[in-house]
Amino acid sequence: MLNDIDLSRTDLNLLVLFEAVLGEGHVGRAADRLNLTPSAVSHGLGRLRRLLNDPLFLRTPKGVVPTARATELAAPIAEVLARVRSVMATAAPFDPATAVRRFAIGAPDGVSAVILRPLLAELSRIAPRIDLGVRQILPSPARVWQSAIVDLETHAIDIAIIPSDDIPPRFERRCIYEEDFVIAMRLGHPFARDPILERYCDMQHLVVSHSGDPYGFVDEELAKQGRARRIALTVPNFIFALAVIAETDLISALPRRFVAMHAARFGVLSLDAPLPLPGFRLNAVAPKVAMMDAGVAWLFDLLAGVEQTAQKHHSGPPARRRQS
């Protein structure tokens, strides 16, 4: 029974330690995050294991992995800590103009490369002592963003920005902007002179794929028309893609806003795609329980206005329309 447990033996910091180890998957990195020594973290884990009567984390060559019991406890512990943080925050209401705090945001690099410039400019103006940590998050196989959900629930990040509408109901979701794809290439590329579908299929293509899988959503659309293309290269992120196509004859389907913001710096141009390509929404996502934290709620609202700010700050030209 809960009321039979001697809570005087329980140190709330042990739950913070649990959260950090679960989020980092490594005792040393958790120690760095908490400004503790690895031996102090190991000692705390020993106390927590005795309290909960479970090993909680098992060592591997790359760090530690949670036991089934630890995985089961992750969400309840995150909720307890969020409520405690909310209670503590009421002692000193969150004021962005004076707050000293660091938030963690997770996003694909093609998203963070769009939002960071206007976001940092806004923070400099209204919240000069707020710091950010940006973690790159990547889709699982079949373009599922489960890793972002895990990072949110383990408090590894405060807010995720992902191109998915498949968000569990225990999370707050808000669209910050809508995106579609253009075809990017170096300035002077011969494809730009006659960007029809037949020539598009004849080109050599670059695909952004963290796993190295060369088959993407463009290939699905081409297959519907009985067509295919050659994927000459895959690279793991969007910024690298721009750097490569700027120096080669490869072309690539890339997010429109991302290309518009960075095209001039890399010396690339973009064209509307010669076939219909699906668009998508970029959603800011945070656990509903975390939104009780006034600081997280404030940053969530700030991100929700990033579309208008990003529009003011992008420096590249719009994609060229194909001639009919």
UniProtKB/TrEMBL annotation:
Keyword Lyase recorded: no
PANTHER family, per the entry: HTH-TYPE TRANSCRIPTIONAL REGULATOR LEUO-RELATED, TRANSCRIPTIONAL REGULATORY PROTEIN
Family: Belongs to the LysR transcriptional regulatory family.
SUPFAM superfamilies: Periplasmic binding protein-like II, Winged helix' DNA-binding domain
Source organism of the structure: Mesorhizobium ventifaucium
Domain of life: Bacteria
InterPro entries named in the record: LysR-type_TF (IPR050389), LysR_HTH_N (IPR000847), LysR_subst-bd (IPR005119), WH-like_DNA-bd_sf (IPR036388), WH_DNA-bd_sf (IPR036390), YidZ_PBP2 (IPR037402)
Segments traversing the membrane: none
Gene Ontology molecular function, alphabetical: DNA binding
Protein name from the UniProt record: DNA-binding transcriptional regulator, LysR family
Keywords: DNA-binding, Nodulation, Transcription, Transcription regulation
Pfam families: HTH_1 (PF00126), LysR_substrate (PF03466)
Domain HTH lysR-type: 10-67
Gene3D superfamilies associated with the record: Periplasmic binding protein-like II (3.40.190.10), Winged helix-like DNA-binding domain superfamily/Winged helix DNA-binding domain (1.10.10.10)
